[in-house]
Amino acid sequence: DETEAREFVELIQAATRAIVFGDKPVVGAINGWAVGGGFEWAMNCDFPIWAESARGFFPEVSLNLFVTGGVTSLLPALVGLNRAREMLFLGERYDAETLLEMGVAWRVVADDQLIQNALEVATTLAGLPPQSVRAMKATLNRTAACDLGQALQLETEATVAGFMDPETTARLKDF
To answer: Residues 21-55, buried b or exposed e (16+ Cβ, 10 A)?
Structure first.
């Protein structure tokens, strides 16, 4: 029902708020497939490091759903509006190198170096003065994209509406 759908979407959006608006930079280690919400959360990270074999895509539109995670604001800021349209409407699959070229991935490393590289970056960040790190993260994440808070609200409404449409259930079963 709508209440259940809304609670579910709010939990997704709460994870985004924690990643994007939390005090500490988030280093993402993306391995395997980042699909839909996983791809959104990868983009929410301050330092998304992708394994060479990792892939990502947005199937939401083909499933009669909508993206969450502030992607409607963050993605155009990262890749431009035309490329964001391509990624969100068409649901094409992208490899890590392409995502690096587009600006979605911060770094791409060999699969067997992913965790070590992510830990090295996290260690470097942890050694920086906390006050300036908090201020830098807050300022960058609040000004780099359009109104992220509004995007999260609009995404929630569109996603709940998608969950309520009977066509969505059929498409999800086929997926």
So the answer is: eeeebbbbbbbeebbbbebbbbbbbbbbbbbbebb
User: How many angstroms separate the Cα of 49 from the Cα of each of 77, 79, 97, 98, 99?
Assistant: 18, 17, 11, 13, 11
What amino acid is encoded at 78 in this protein?
A: L
Angle 21-136-145 (CA atoms, 0-180°, nearest 5)?
A: 60
2 part of the active site: no
Q: Is the dihedral of CA 16, 99, 77, 59 positive or negative?
A: negative
* pLDDT, position 39: 97
Q: 19: how many CB neighbours lie within 10 A of its CB?
A: 22
pTM of the model: 0.87
Which residue is catalytic, options 40, 86, 101, 167? 40
pLDDT tens-digit readout, 104-138? 999 999 999 999 999 999 999 999 999 999 999 98
What one-character DSSP code corresponds to residue 129? -
Marked catalytic residue, from 60, 92, 97, 167: 60
Extended strands (E) in the chain: 27-30, 33-35, 47-51, 55-57, 94-95, 107-109
Asked if 46 and 23 count as a contact pair (C-beta separation under 8 A), the reply is no
Active site residue 52: no
